[in-house]
Amino acid sequence: MVPTDNLLKPTPTDNMIKRCEWVSHYSATDMMTKYHDTEWGKPLRDNDVKLFELLTLEIFQAGLSWEISLKKRSGLNEAFFHFDVDRVASMTEADVLRLKQDENIIRNGLKIAATINNAQIIQHLQATFGSLSEYLWHFTDNQTINHHITRSSEIVAQNALSQQVAKDMKKQGFKFAGPVTIYSYLQAMGVINDHESTCDFNPE
Fold first, then answer.
1. Is 154 a catalytic residue?
2. Does 20 belong to an annotated binding site?
3. Can you tell me which residues bind Zn(2+) (predicted)?
């Protein structure tokens, strides 16, 4: 006999899940939905490999789309040794030329070279700040900035924080790290929380 209480409780379905408006036109199994549900906006700390990967994905999507960058994610992981900072930092111009022929990635020579350069800068930050994570989170005193978004149209392309971080990253020597790219990066790694307030995946 089925308990009466169970009859009163609807079976959870994906239709009952509330997500941010920007992901609503993707199916529940789409990679963009999975990225939104499992990664986007979740505070990421103490994992320089993952932070390096996210930064590289942001750089490669510039001028294209995040969806394209995600589709090339596995290829980029293979091309850049799963974002082992030291191995990428030791790559040479010969590697740039080789990767420009790799159909599994976005074949932009400047972005490939920038990734190698950025690995070298991350090495420097690890020596001076302890980690890339410590460097990035120090801008907000290790706090997440929640913009209490109610709809996607409220999300900006850049703000004073991303401008500050981008300016300092440029000073450190990073390439392809402008304020728009860095705003998206800060969203991705959870320094900025731009999940809508009603989203079931809002970390707060």
1. no
2. yes
3. 20, 36, 195, 199
